[in-house]
Amino acid sequence: MTSTLPATATSREDAAALDVADPLAHFRDRYLPLAPGVTAYLDGNSLGRPLAAIAERSDAFIREQWAGRLIRGWSEGWMELPEQVGDELAAATLGAAAGQTLIADSTTINFYKTLRAALALRPDRTRIVIDRDHFPTNRFVVESVVRDLGLEIAWLPGSVDGGVTVDALAEVLDERVAVVALSHVAYRSGHLADAAAITAATHRAGALVVWDLCHSVGACEIELDAWEVDFAVGCTYKFVGAGPGAPAFLYAAARHHDRLDQPLWGWLGRADPFEMEQGYRPAPGIRSMMSGTPSIPGVLAVREGARVIAEAGMPAVRAKAVALTELVVELADSWLAPEGFTLASPRDPARRGGHVSVARADARQVCAALVEAGVLPDFRTPDVVRLGVSPLPASFVEVWDALAVMREIGR
Ligand SMILES: Cc1ncc(COP(=O)(O)O)c(C=O)c1O
Ligand SMILES: Nc1c(O)cccc1C(=O)C[C@H](N)C(=O)O
Questions:
Q1: How far is CA 381 from the centre of its chain?
Q2: Domains, the chain, with CATH or none
Q3: Would you say the ipTM is above 0.85?
Q4: Which stretches are annotated as coiled coil (predicted)?
Q5: What is the pTM of this model?
Q6: Which residue, 13, 75, 313, 360, shows the most beta carbons closer than 10 Å to its own?
């Protein structure tokens, strides 16, 4: 169980005291400072802030390894990095044993590959379950796969409408369902699904799961092996902080490796790629999920993000995510609700990820005014201001000050 820090702050001094008591406060110094004119960064879950180590190590990589080793780098370790760093991220934050995680491609590509691999394991079934409020890329990939393979979608209501629960799933789960593909944390509402229970219910119906962990990795505790997840994907540029467009991760449980059949056959997923042979023969294990050349600077940035999470420890990171989001909810209740904002995220911290959304019809204008005032949130259509509080770089005073600015703007 995750312990939670008390978040109650009724004054700015209280918020400052929470920062003094925060065991993770020193991690803030690991990040490059906010740009001039920016006083609060609450967009941590679309793009995290850069670690200074990424700037330093990528410069060293370019000078020493790229310039120094040139093409020799591939045979001197770069080729193995997607699996090595996958294992590091898995140990730091995915609850997954080695040999099941790769860092490569984008979430969209990895979602496509894992979805097709899961479908290939249930060839006699015809349905994919997703929810209405799933991130657009996931909906579009599912819609294209359904079109291409002649399957159908069983829609759950969105997370805000109670869709991503075992009870809602029970309404659609039957022997036609091949795959249940949901987000662990919903991108708009921040709803945290009970991944263990949903995975177990899915398995009882004979189907497989593909979890999208984009918004939970680095903010929520994840136990892929213990939950017996089949496949999972996620990005590394939000709470992991590996930078815009950094490669995503992909998890495929070891028990499926002898029958992994992914749709994007590329040379790096083949056994002995440098033999340049005719015909595709998959590489053993998780390597067969590779397609083309991975971005090595990107994979190395993921390593830095994984390292800092491992050092802080996920229980402490999660405790701070809960404490920060509790403070946002408290301030939203006392300062924003009287101005007509409504909470658009779960009130129960056990069902909430690392961000809090508040809704008001003029959210777009509110977000524009916040940006103007140096507070960077996310606007999500049609009416949501999404406040991402990244546990390692964010402070309680930063949240207090940002919400104070928002109260003024909202008047
Ligand atoms: C749940 C979810 N899945 C996928 C993505 C995006 O995938 P990609 O990195 O391929 O653009 C995002 C955000 O961009 C997301 O929130
Ligand atoms: N991936 C992004 C991008 O390339 C540009 C702007 C935003 C993003 C995001 O990550 C959006 C994000 N997944 C969301 O939940 O809204």
A1: 20
A2: 12-50+313-410 (3.90.1150.10), 77-311 (3.40.640.10)
A3: yes
A4: none
A5: 0.97
A6: 360
